[in-house]
Write a structure and sequence with these properties.
The complex is a heterodimer of chains A (about 300) and B (about 290). By secondary structure, chain A is mainly α. Chain A contains 15 helices and no strands. Chain B starts with a helix and ends in an 11-residue tail after the last helix. The chains are: A mainly alpha (about 300), B mainly alpha (about 290). Chains A and B meet through α5, α12 and α14 of A and α4, α10 and α12 of B.
């Protein structure tokens, strides 16, 4: 396991060294970025909480990091960490709301929360630049290349996967699983669900905020309707469920497949329909592929 | 704010409120019969609007003549949705959100492909005529919108409470097993409900397009409005939907009048959060998740 992972990481570290075209570094960098956000979404899902509003954390991280980098001399790399912090803080109200809201109600609440933040970001002109958003966000790459952004995205993905794995193997991971499977029973056995769910929200929100911040410094501009918008809430949900939520690398797989299909195949051919693979993937998961792509590779056990 | 502006806002809010109730009634029909939250409901409405717009642009006749066509055009989608939502895993509410979110995105993309992102409005000189109610001037189109919405709600109420198929639908919504044991063909009632809901949504879309600009992404907000009203008013309680619609419509209109139009969407998001927190037990009281 460890040698394989090291080998994969080594291979993934190569492209900038062997002078890949900057566009491909950008493309794969953003694919890793979305893979990390999808993994962060999945971390919350392992605690039984389905979010339809991850754009709230993504957008908050993007705006926090961009604003600090634009208005102070703080380096983008340090501003990213602030994005993570703000993403985590943004998740606190929803973590507390999970005390009373379950399942579909919580999912709708996360969606409404992201919508509220989107409208505020669009209308608070003095702070956020209004509907036009922010431009000229300092890039993480000083030399105008894409290598540093690529490595940071890769680092973010490794971090998200490592956090997921560490949680899974800890007492906290057991608590997540207990709440996911039977919250009332977990509670009856003496587990307080709300602090556990709050922790899941803050961890997931922090990682997603970091992803949003890195996105802002990679793309260079952000608009409220995009970074706080419904489609950015949907992407991690679709990627994670399409890849497979019960496998550690499922969300990564789903993100890479969908992002690359959308960007490499549909964007050049049918630019107006580039979201189509996401819609079809989600429908496929709900109707036919409950375990996601990963489920296709697992041995099927059919009841006799 | 002058008294006239205030009165104008009240009328506009009340008109929208009646329309919102119509919107929510078809959303609530589906939720009641199948426990499914149809996040693509707004797209049904927008599709109905495009059907109406297309026929009107083609023929130039009075748009309201096409109400039945907008309703009929949506019927196949109703049956398709009934089939797809019947196969969902537990918990149905959550799984339906996932599936219909995908369907909503699919419809949005297809509409974007077919109709482009332009904003469209059904304009008929007859609907533009202004009527003076004391200090308030209202477009005839808005009066028709409110009137048709109320008439449709009343007909739906009478259908559900006074006719055999309507009562069978209500019974199936309340308790599917018991209804089946009483000899009601619950599958047929489910299909009928989906057909009615899709037709109502399509017709509502045409009405919507006479007052508001329509574009492929307009559906999401309409869906949110429907969810809010169903949370506030309760599934199948049409008077509750109407009161909820009026509350939301008036709050929106007053917010716009007192601040700026751009804050209207915040009212919708906050209403949804508030309605969810006010009804933490979920959308269908009396049923476990």
């Amino acid at each position: 396991m460890i040698p394989t992972a090291a080998l994969i990481l080594f291979a993934l570290a190569l492209p900038p060294v062997i002078a890949f075209h900057p566009y491909y570094l950008y493309l794969f960098g953003t694919a890793f970025l979305w893979a990390s956000v999808a993994s962060a979404w999945n971390l919350l899902e392992t605690a039984g909480q389905i979010s339809f509003g991850h754009a709230a954390f993504f957008g908050a991280g993007a705006y926090a990091s961009s604003l600090v980098a634009l208005r102070t001399n703080l380096s983008p790399q340090l501003a990213l960490l602030l994005g993570a912090l703000v993403g985590g803080v943004t998740a606190v109200p929803l973590g507390l709301a999970s005390h009373v809201l379950r399942s579909a109600s919580l999912a709708l609440a996360t969606f409404a929360y992201a919508e509220a933040l989107r409208v505020i970001a669009r209308n608070w002109d003095g702070l956020t630049g209004g509907g036009a958003g922010l431009i000229g966000i300092p890039p993480v790459d000083s030399a105008g290349g894409r290598a540093e952004g690529y490595y940071l995205s890769l680092l973010l993905l490794v971090t998200a996967l490592a956090v997921g794995r560490a949680v899974e193997r800890s007492r906290l991971g057991l608590a997540f699983a207990a709440i996911r499977e039977r919250e009332d029973r977990a509670q009856a056995l003496g587990l307080a669900p709300t602090p556990v769910k709050l922790t899941a929200f803050v961890l997931s929100g922090g990682l997603t905020g970091l992803g949003g911040a890195l996105y802002a410094h990679t793309v260079g501009s952000i608009q409220p309707d995009l970074v706080f918008g419904p489609s950015f809430s949907l992407l991690p949900l679709i990627m994670a469920t399409f890849g497979g939520i019960r496998a550690p690398l499922g969300p990564t797989l789903g993100a890479l497949v969908l992002h690359l299909t959308s960007q490499l195949v549909l964007h050049p051919l049918l630019p107006r329909l580039h979201q189509l693979p996401y819609a079809l993937a989600l429908i496929a998961v709900a109707l036919a592929l409950p375990k996601g792509l990963v489920g296709l590779f697992m041995t099927r056990r059919r009841p006799a | 704010m002058s008294l006239a502006t205030f009165a104008q806002a009240l009328v506009a809010g009340a008109v929208n409120g009646c329309f919102y109730a119509l919107l929510a009634s078809s959303f609530g029909l589906i939720l009641g019969i199948s426990r499914a939250l149809n996040l693509a409901h707004g797209e049904f409405v927008v599709l109905g609007a495009y059907v109406g717009y297309g026929l009107w642009a083609l023929t130039g006749l009075d748009p309201l003549l096409f109400l039945p066509f907008a309703a009929i055009a949506l019927l196949p989608l109703g049956l398709l949705w009934a089939r797809m939502l019947a196969g969902l895993r537990e918990p149905v509410e959550l799984q339906s959100l996932v599936l219909t979110f995908g369907l909503s995105l699919l419809l949005q993309n297809l509409m974007l492909g077919f109709f482009r992102a332009d904003y469209r409005l059904l304009i008929a000189p007859a609907l533009e005529r202004s009527v003076a109610l004391g200090p308030v001037h209202v477009h005839w189109g808005r009066i028709l919108l409110a009137g048709i919405s109320l008439a449709a709600l009343l007909s739906l109420h009478l259908f559900l409470t006074r006719t055999r198929p309507g009562r069978a639908i209500l019974a199936t919504s309340l308790n599917r097993e018991a209804a089946a044991l009483m000899g009601i063909n619950v599958d047929r009632m489910t299909s009928l409900t989906f057909l009615m809901a899709a037709g109502l949504a399509g017709a509502a879309g045409l009405l919507f397009a006479t007052v508001h600009y329509v574009h492929p992404a307009a559906g999401m907000e309409l869906t949110l409005l429907a969810i809010i009203l169903v949370l506030l008013g309760g599934v199948g309680r049409l008077l509750g939907l109407l009161l909820g619609g009026l509350a939301l419509g008036l709050t929106e209109a007053l917010t716009v009048a007192l601040t700026a139009p751009r804050w209207r969407e915040l009212v919708v998001a906050l209403f949804l959060l508030g309605a969810l927190l006010a009804r933490p037990r979920g959308l269908i009281p009396g049923r476990s998740q």
